[in-house]
């Protein structure tokens, strides 16, 4: 240990060499103008040297304070160098921003989303309503107050979107915890409690009255990708994704098999769905094949497939209140008013109407019966003329789901 203490002048003017300040603190000068601080100590019987920074950035007083701090750690039986590394790791962990973790969580789930999440629906509630205000906040600092404050403005005005944003944020927080970041996993639930009841009514997507569908169908007949996609959406009653991402190899004969990843999950699990193709549907598909690119029947102008908004914009430009998804409602109401059994109508729309026991008995997807109803719907849509009620195909037996024995 050096006997003479350093001072600011010695630190500044001393030539190259090593100069002790006592207590294991040393000044190491490379030349007159440059040098660094070093703390020498014995850790568990081993001589260790711990750098404390350069003289250009750390003053003598700061070096002495740092040396005192790490000597206290050593007296507690801990290795100061290992302890400093641990603190640095913790600090780095705490600086992970919510925006970065949210993006990482989204990418981790992307393969399980419809179309690999390319439509952006999963991420958009966060991107639009949460990240602009909280994106640059370290994820470890996100608490229920911050979440409440950012979602309060849309909690009642845009209740469905707010619920989605909260649900996605919960997933992001769990993802952060899995990465080892110190987050409050209860923050989302506590924020929901603070936000209180929404007191909202679910707003259905506007639909076109079924009597007006033939006129609209006739108006989208220029053979463009958008018009053809709308026609097939109307005829099949499918949601947007199975239409937009339809490929020629999804079709075999007069049956379209929609892959599970393009179907909405029922009870947490999406399943492939077979659609009987009527002559009118096949004609639309045949016309769409001339637009096909990379296997997709409804490609966009630049790359990929048409967006979910493309068809909606066409209706918006015509100043229509109805939206493409509403044609499912048009079809459903038409089926009900024409006497279609509820279970068949729900199956046409790919809704799940069976419990586990019922599903174990009902092995058929009633393709031929659904074909009869969709063929009648297609003739109505094309001609505007309705027909008598549909009869079941020869040999087919319609079994109401509620009549199936339970055990």
UniProtKB/TrEMBL annotation:
CDD domains found in the cross-reference section: INT_P4_C (cd00801)
Similarity-based family: Belongs to the 'phage' integrase family.
Domain of life: Bacteria
Pfam families: Arm-DNA-bind_3 (PF13356), Phage_int_M (PF22022), Phage_integrase (PF00589)
Keywords: DNA integration, DNA recombination, DNA-binding
Organism ancestry: Bacteria, Pseudomonadati, Pseudomonadota, Alphaproteobacteria, Rhodobacterales
One Gene Ontology term of the molecular function aspect: DNA binding
Protein name as catalogued: Integrase arm-type DNA-binding domain-containing protein
């Amino acid at each position: 240990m050096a006997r003479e203490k350093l001072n600011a002048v010695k630190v500044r003017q001393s030539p190259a060499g090593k100069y002790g300040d006592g207590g294991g603190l040393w000044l190491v000068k490379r030349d007159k103008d440059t040098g660094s601080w070093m703390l020498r100590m014995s850790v568990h019987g081993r001589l260790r040297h711990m750098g404390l920074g350069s003289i250009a950035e750390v003053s003598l007083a700061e070096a002495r304070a740092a040396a005192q701090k790490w000597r206290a750690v050593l007296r507690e039986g801990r290795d100061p160098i290992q302890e400093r590394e641990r603190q640095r790791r913790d600090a780095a962990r705490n600086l992970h921003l919510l925006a970065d973790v949210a993006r990482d969580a989204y990418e981790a789930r992307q393969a399980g989303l419809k179309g690999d999440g390319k439509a952006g629906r999963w991420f958009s509630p966060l991107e639009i309503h949460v990240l602009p205000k909280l994106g640059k906040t370290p994820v470890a600092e996100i608490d229920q107050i911050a979440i409440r404050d950012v979602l309060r403005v849309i909690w009642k005005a845009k209740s469905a979107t707010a619920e989605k944003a909260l649900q996605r944020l919960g997933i992001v927080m769990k993802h952060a915890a899995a990465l080892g970041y110190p987050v409050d996993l209860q923050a989302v639930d506590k924020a929901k409690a603070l936000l209180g009841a929404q007191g909202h009514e679910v707003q259905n997507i506007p639909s076109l009255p079924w009597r007006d569908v033939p006129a609209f169908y006739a108006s989208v007949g220029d053979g463009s990708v958008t018009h053809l996609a709308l026609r097939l959406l109307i005829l099949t009653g499918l949601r947007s994704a199975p239409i937009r991402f339809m490929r020629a190899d999804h079709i075999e004969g007069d049956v379209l098999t929609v892959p599970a990843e393009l179907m909405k999950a029922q009870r947490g699990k999406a399943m492939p769905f077979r659609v009987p193709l009527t002559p009118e549907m096949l004609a639309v598909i045949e016309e769409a094949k001339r637009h096909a690119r990379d296997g997709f029947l409804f490609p966009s102008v630049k790359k990929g497939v048409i967006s979910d908004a493309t068809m909606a914009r066409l209706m918006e430009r015509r100043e229509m209140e109805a939206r493409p998804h509403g044609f499912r409602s048009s079809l459903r109401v038409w089926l009900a008013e024409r006497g279609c059994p509820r279970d068949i109508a729900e199956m046409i729309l790919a809704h799940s109407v069976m419990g586990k026991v019922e599903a174990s008995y009902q092995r058929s997807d009633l393709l031929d019966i659904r074909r009869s109803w969709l063929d009648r719907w297609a003739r109505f849509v094309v001609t505007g003329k309705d027909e008598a009620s549909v009869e079941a195909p020869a040999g087919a037996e319609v079994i109401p789901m509620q009549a199936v024995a339970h055990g």
